[in-house]
Write a structure and sequence with these properties.
alpha/beta; Rossmann fold; Rna Polymerase Sigma Factor, Chain: A; 7-stranded parallel β-sheet; 16 helices; 44% helix; 14% strand
């Protein structure tokens, strides 16, 4: 396989004036809504919206499709797709449904880039479908990169299709690494705000409302809870290892509450290249949408002031208080299918917490129990979609039973 860092995605060269035809998966979620806004703020007519997909929110999907002139939409919940078809007979766009519809939308031949803003493992199959249809993949779907990142990267390298990370830290690493050889990299540091519970001594009894009130980044509920447990950083370590082909020992996390530096790359001569930007997801989204160009946003592109930069602090995370980080690191070091199992266990534990069934403080224990329960399945092949999905299913089952045993 080609050196992944050297494999600069030679994204399709768009002729000036030729608009990209973009498909957005997860367009009604927190990132998806920002993608559409960012695309419409770019200099006139650069991006046409071709396809949109959501899970259940057919009302917003319909509004987006009409306003942006989409040619096809997909609702992965079939009942929601039927509701849209009933409410909008004679819709000027095609309505697809279910997991198969999502893959069809992502793999339409001759389509432009696919922006994957789905939350959870459901984004893995459409991501693979997009790459196999040779459509550039702009990837904000963290869980699929954790569970299937090695497979996705291998496919992207083999087919020479761009795979552009959109998670803010990974967009930062991508930019810091630009043009550098992996052999020049000594260490990559991913920064963390520390989340809403950075200073809270006892997290038992924390409510979903408290856990999702992130101090800096407004985000969807799943990633907000992951930020509160620091599992988000653990998943991001795995994501970085998979995306950039970095060994676990080269990756670390620093608590940086100001959220000004998004990642740092230390080179073998001791130089550190850091990426600084305002804490606004529109920056990495715009970079992915316009790569390899770099364009200003419309109207109000935020700018850092010197006072933002004057008080930067960095500290080691306290893994005793945030054991999810230790669990994620163990899964990264174990390799194989351990990241897929970790991801599934976390998705289940977070969903039980968000629906009020378990205590926030029990999330790490449920993940740990799940990892032990499926231990004999973790040495499988992370390049096999079937094995990833089998392990995902087994870990979900084990996590549900662990969560029920800890139910409030
Ligand atoms: Mg992030």
């Amino acid at each position: 396989m080609k050196n992944p860092i050297k494999n600069k995605p030679d994204i399709e060269k768009r002729l000036p004036g030729t608009p990209a035809r973009l498909t957005v998966l997860g367009s009604t979620g927190s990132i998806g809504v920002k993608v559409l806004e960012t695309a419409s703020e770019l200099p006139g007519g650069r991006i046409l919206i071709e396809g949109l997909a959501a899970r259940t929110n057919w009302r917003l999907l319909k509004e987006q499709a009409v306003r942006r002139g989409a040619r096809a939409v997909c609702l992965s919940n079939p009942a929601a797709a039927r509701a849209l078809a009933r409410a909008f007979p004679g819709a000027p766009f095609k309505i697809l449904e279910g997991a198969q519809g999502l893959e069809t939308l992502a793999s339409a031949p001759g389509g432009g880039p696919v922006f994957n803003a789905i939350t959870g493992i459901d984004g893995l199959r459409p991501s693979l479908a997009a790459l196999r249809a040779r459509r550039p993949l702009l990837m904000a779907n963290k869980e699929s990169l954790v569970a299937g990142g090695r497979l996705l990267r291998a496919e992207a390298v083999l087919l020479r299709v761009p795979l552009i990370p959109v998670d803010s830290e990974h967009s930062a690493i991508f930019q810091c690494l630009s043009g550098r050889d992996a052999s020049e990299v000594r260490r990559v540091v991913i920064t963390a705000s520390g989340g809403p519970f950075l200073k809270r001594r006892n997290v038992r009894g924390a409510t979903p409302a408290q856990a999702t009130a992130h101090p800096v980044w407004p985000m969807g509920p799943k990633v907000s809870v992951d930020s509160a447990t620091l599992m988000n950083k653990g998943l991001e370590l795995i994501e970085a290892a998979h995306l950039f082909g970095l060994a676990p020992e080269k990756l670390s996390v620093a608590i940086h509450p100001q959220c000004v530096v998004h990642a740092m790359v230390e080179l073998t001569d001791g130089s550190i290249i850091a990426h600084l930007a305002p804490a606004d997801m529109k920056t990495p989204i715009r970079y992915a949408l316009t790569y390899p160009e770099r364009l200003p946003g419309g109207g109000q592109t935020l700018s850092l002031s010197l006072s933002d930069i004057s008080g930067l602090t960095f500290a080691e995370p306290d893994e005793k208080r945030f054991p999810c980080l230790t669990l994620a690191r163990a899964a990264l070091e174990r390799g194989g299918l351990a990241p897929a199992a970790l991801n599934a266990a976390d998705e289940i534990a977070v969903s039980f917490f968000l629906s009020g069934k378990i205590d926030f403080a029990d999330i790490p224990a449920i993940i740990e129990k799940t990892m032990s329960a499926v231990d004999d399945q973790l040495d499988g092949d992370p390049m096999s979609l079937e094995e990833i999905m089998e392990t995902d299913a087994a870990a979900r089952k084990a996590a549900k039973s662990a969560a029920r045993a800890s139910a409030l």
